[in-house]
Design brief:
flat
């Protein structure tokens, strides 16, 4: 569980929530490879 409410629009999410939502979308797409820019930032 990532703690993101699915009915909210991305524009209303905080920065951290938007990043978590982006990760959920990335993992849901099941890519063969991921390119992370500054993954420890």
């Amino acid at each position: 569980e990532f703690g993101v409410i699915p009915d909210l629009r991305c524009a209303t999410l905080s920065g951290g929530e938007a990043r978590r939502a982006a990760l959920v979308r990335l993992f849901a797409a099941d890519p063969d490879a991921m390119l992370l820019d500054e993954p420890t930032n």
